Amino acid sequence: MNSEQHNQIGKETISVELTINEALALTGVRFNQNHQLEVDALQKIKRMLEHKLLPEQAHLQ
């Protein structure tokens, strides 16, 4: 991937639906005994990125 392709991809947008608590967890708010909120939010974002960047593999899952 050359730098021009990288710049074009970097300007595309994605939408990820997070709960308010998941969004807060990503900003650094700590929830006592519930680190899973941050983990779940990150997984949602990673899945959406994979779907956007590797659409042919998303159909295999």
Biggest sheet: strands, sense, closure?
none
Distance between the termini: 25 Å
Segments where pLDDT lies below 50 for 5+ residues? Answer: none
As a percent range, the share of strand residues is under 5%
Taking all Cα atoms into account, the compactness measure Rg is 15 Å
Shape: elongated
Mean pLDDT: 86
Number of helices: 4
Helix content: 55-70%
H/E element string?
HHHH
Structural class by secondary-structure content:
mainly alpha
Topology, number of strands:
0
Structural commentary:
The protein is 62% helix and 0% strand. It is elongated. It has helices at 3-11, 20-26, 36-53, 55-58. The longest helix is centred in the last third of the chain and has 18 residues, at 36-53. The model has no long low-confidence stretch (mean pLDDT 86). It has a domain at 20-53.
Provide key terms for this protein.
61 residues, mainly alpha, 4 helices, elongated
Please specify the SSE layout and strand pairing.
Layout: H1 3-11, H2 20-26, H3 36-53, H4 55-58
Helix pairs in contact: 2-3
